[in-house]
User: Fold this.
Amino acid sequence: LWRWTGTAYAVAVTLSVAAVAGFLWSLRFYDGREFLGLRQLSEGNASVDDQESFQLSPLHRWVRHPWYFFALVIIWTRDMNASMLITAILMTLYFIIGSRLEERKLLRYHGEVYRRYRQRVPGLIPLPWKHLRADEAQALTGDAES
Assistant:
């Protein structure tokens, strides 16, 4: 259906590499053991409650679901044939639906603080005019601890 060539190819590769780098950089802001369930397993914790307090990494100031955003960049910067297009559409729908389900859970866990955060920061695609400054993010996380 389309093949990136010339300047478009360079842009697509640059965006893909930046997405992988962003994902790798973002790992330092997550508790990997918590994310994989290893902490809960080792502690014998079968609770479905959120194990962490409300926190915002630098990327979460720009987009609520940075890993989904990076995945979408990688998916949509590939050369596209019919089967890849179907896969890209289905994966995009998966991220949209998954993010909405995750939002419900986060609203239950973090309540009003998450609702305010959600009003200020886009879900899947960063918008330069809609983000939190560092002091605003710190104020929100401080409100969550109160």
The longest helix spans residues 82-120.
